[in-house]
Design goal:
Elements lengths: L7 E9 L9 E8 L4 E9 L4 H19 L4 H11 L11 E9 L2 E7 L5 E4 L2 E3 L4 E4 L11 E7 L5 E6 L1 H4 L13 H15 L5 H15 L8 E9 L3 E6 L8 H9 L4 E5 L1 H11 L4 E3 L10 E4 L2 E5 L2 H13 L11 H10 L3 E6 L18 H15 L4 E6 L1
Helix pairs in contact: 1-2, 8-9, 8-10
Length: about 400
């Protein structure tokens, strides 16, 4: 492994609520700033559980991600947050703990207050960054914890940063085999063994494994809100979607060549678009009646392409699935829209190639001529993929 500016930063989380609660007292937020090549992630743990804990964690995480975005230094961020939060009159501690991870191009900066210390894995080995302890002057006079842990390091490809709430390390407390809880050592061993057995496990799956193990430690009735965030530095998984014919037929060959030369998964969306590719590639379109969705036309197969589907109707359903599900969803359907969603979720760098020839079958005459339904769908799709699913998306029109 070596330093590489081309790696992709995958960010994911998994959470379980305290038993009997309908809202989690931990809050995880993440944000990508494309112009600055930055990724921010925050995990805040509100004291207690339920609505009150969620409100405090939401306040903390929102302040943390906003201040980090403004490039405030670690000490300033910590002081503002801790002076803003109320304190527990009995425990004399802040009502929320937090972890902030700021990945700025080629450097990682981590700030932690009272959460279990971040675990950094370099491949299957533990990497120990140099942690520094900041003492916040004057904060201890108000009865709040004054020690803030910070570290900085340059990431390598196949690095992972795993950060958790104490619901993970304290899970199983009181059980005969773990009276004091699962503990950091056992948790670290679990993460290391998981990575060694599944070297390229995604951030999402690793977060789920950690939380599910803690859930099992608590006999499937969580005694505290339990959260795990994972950041994974790796090669990007790339995907291209071509939808709609080019405005000018003379561009058809260029259109097909762009997809042919693309290094990654390839989806053709639209019957007319598929016919263009079939003609230029000399490849037959074969309908697939094994994986059906009664609400959509069947998908097809074509040599050199991973998936061929109908256009507007299928992409509309893709939008519906992406909009209504959560970012760590598991796809259960096998229809064309489900297949596209699954491929989108499992890709990082997504390029959408949009033909701008108006298809009269889908054009609404009540709209201005320059507005076309396909463009509207693509715009909404890009917005969802970037903001909700943290994907890197680019669009090209022909």
């Amino acid at each position: 492994m070596d330093y590489d500016s081309t790696f992709y930063v995958e960010t994911a989380s998994c959470q379980r609520n305290h038993k009997g609660e309908f809202i989690c007292g931990d809050v995880f937020l993440s944000k990508k700033l494309k112009e600055e090549k930055r990724t921010l992630a925050v995990l805040a743990d509100g004291m207690g559980h339920g609505v009150k804990a969620n409100v405090l964690a939401t306040l903390t995480s929102t302040m943390a991600i906003n201040f980090a975005e403004e490039h405030k230094d670690a000490k300033t961020i910590a002081e503002i947050i801790m002076r803003t939060l109320p304190i527990c009159s009995e425990r004399k501690t802040s009502y929320a703990t937090f972890t902030i991870v700021d990945i700025n191009n080629r450097e990682v900066n981590i700030l932690e207050y009272d959460n279990p210390l971040c675990l950094v894995m370099r491949g299957g080995n533990i990497f120990e960054p140099e942690w520094n302890c900041l003492i916040l002057e004057g904060v201890d006079q108000q009865g709040r914890g004054q020690e803030i842990m910070t570290c900085s390091f340059r990431p390598m490809r196949e690095d992972r940063i795993i950060f958790i709430s104490d619901g993970v390390t304290q899970s199983g407390m009181g059980n005969d085999n773990m009276l004091l809880g699962w503990g950091r050592d056992a948790y670290v061993d679990f993460v290391r063994d998981t990575i060694l057995h599944e070297r390229y496990i995604s951030a999402s799956k690793l977060a789920q494994r950690v939380v599910n193990r803690a859930y099992g430690n608590d006999n499937f009735a969580s005694k505290d809100d339990t959260s795990c965030g994972v950041i994974y530095f790796r090669y990007p998984r790339r995907l291209i979607i071509a939808t709609g014919p080019p405005f000018d037929m003379s561009k058809d060959a260029e259109y097909v060549q762009k997809v042919k030369d693309f290094n990654g998964y390839k989806i053709i969306s639209g019957a007319t678009t598929a016919e263009i590719f079939s003609r230029h590639l000399g490849a037959e379109i074969v309908d697939d009646y094994e994986h059906m969705d009664p609400t959509l036309p069947p998908m097809s197969r074509m040599e050199g392409v991973d998936l061929v589907t109908e256009g507007v109707l299928t992409l509309n359903k893709v939008l519906t699935i992406l909009d209504t599900e959560n970012a760590t969803m598991t796809i259960h359907g096998e229809g064309p829209a489900d297949k596209i969603v699954d491929m989108l979720i499992n890709s990082d760098d997504i390029h959408i190639l949009v033909g701008t020839k108006i298809n009269q079958a889908h054009h609404d005459p009540s709209l201005p001529v320059e507005i076309e339904i396909r463009k509207s769908i693509v715009k909404r799709l890009v917005d969802l993929l970037e903001k909700k699913y943290m994907k890197d998306v680019s669009v090209e029109y022909l």
